[in-house]
Amino acid sequence: MADQTLIRRPAPDGxxxxxxxxxxxxxxxxxxxxxxSIRGIVDDRPSGLLLGHHVGFIDDVKGAEVxxxxxxxxxxxxxxxxxxxxxxGCRWPPIIHPSSVVSSHAQIGEGCYxxxxxxxxxxxxxxxxxxxxxxxxxxxxxxxxxSVILPHAxxxxxxxxxxxxxxxxxxxxxxxxxxxDDCRVGANAVVRKNMxxxxxxxxxxxxxxxxxxxxxxxxRAAP
Length: 223
Hints:
Layout: H1 4-8, E1 15-18, H2 22-33, E2 38-43, E3 49-50, E4 53-57, E5 68-70, H3 75-82, E6 95-96, E7 101-102, E8 107-108, E9 113-114, E10 119-120, E11 124-125, E12 130-131, E13 136-137, E14 142-143, E15 148-149, E16 154-155, E17 160-161, E18 166-167, E19 172-173, E20 178-179, E21 184-185, E22 190-191, E23 200-201
Parallel strand pairs: 1-2, 1-5, 2-4, 6-9, 7-10, 8-11, 9-12, 10-13, 11-14, 12-15, 13-16, 14-17, 15-18, 16-19, 17-20, 18-21, 19-22, 21-23
Antiparallel strand pairs: 3-4
């Protein structure tokens, strides 16, 4: 088990965010509202300021001993960045948002992030697993390194999710299902059967987008 104080409160000088893309915007807002200070952001393509925080180069970290959090949502890319020589001195405390419900029986690996209103029971998370808002994980769920579970996805009891998987928003993983490494589950998809490594599950229903629709009016048929 990770130390609960370290989980919610990184070092007083703040948390270094590694990755300055779209997910960094979300995490800056979420962490700051939870009272966690941001010491800076690093990326391979710095873009000046991000929500008031300077964005520097990853290589400029130069092995500094700082508390850090990966913000890169793409699992394979996050794994590659984690091995960068410049980040070898970083500490990777798990970060748990105070609004989430996390069992004392949960086993949480280094660098994990558990977002707002998530519910986590006696689960096992590998390294750098990201859980986002309103995720629900049932009993004895295991999730491998660098996997990402996007908002409102649910994982029922005894499911096993491999490494570097991406579970999209609103997806539902049924009890006892095994999902292999490097799998993708699409938005709102329901997974009832095991998925071999490298496979994709998508929801069959599609949303159609029509243009030039006037609400409250009946369109005339062409003569």
